[in-house]
Amino acid sequence: MLIHDDTLNRTTSGSGLVCDHTFDEITNLDAGYFYYKSKSTVRVPSLKKVLEEITNKKKSINIELKPNKGLERLNVDKIVKEIKNFSLENIFFSSFDLDSCIYLKEKLPAALCGFLNHDFSKITLKNTTDICKRYDFFSCGTDIDSFSDAIVNELTNCDILVTVYSGKNIPIKEAQNLWKKNVTSVFVDDPTDYLEYF
Asked: Which CATH fold would you assign to the domain 55-197?
């Protein structure tokens, strides 16, 4: 299934750890209230269903590999098994968990994987570029609060694409400014304004 948090509390009508619930239990929860602030028919989808949808609509997807403590390799193995019948052409991966990124590239060398770094004081910009080059990660994502011209310049000079995300939706005007600075993409929760812009 595709769900962002470790728990159900923030993005569904349920509560508790995701791993303590069955897929059937989770798919019966309301996953739209978080966005619409009212009851909805939005449900947590399976990865297979989303992959079928993006294939039919000729869209792309970024699959974030979550750092499931002690289960990182199993997580990657399950995802690799699930995507085996789909083209990698429109599937991208990213993760804060370096081991998950490395293992994914071992399993699927042709896959496009990006490393996410929200704290350049822990993993420096130089180390980040070295990691991306060493493991053939095509992009580096960073939090908008960590973003700087120096970061995007260093990464793009090394032919590493830059993505930016935020805990809040990035307004379209701010995204336009980021694109002017050679940011390749921005991650957003609600793409409504972006659909109208494009």
From this structure: TIM Barrel (3.20.20)
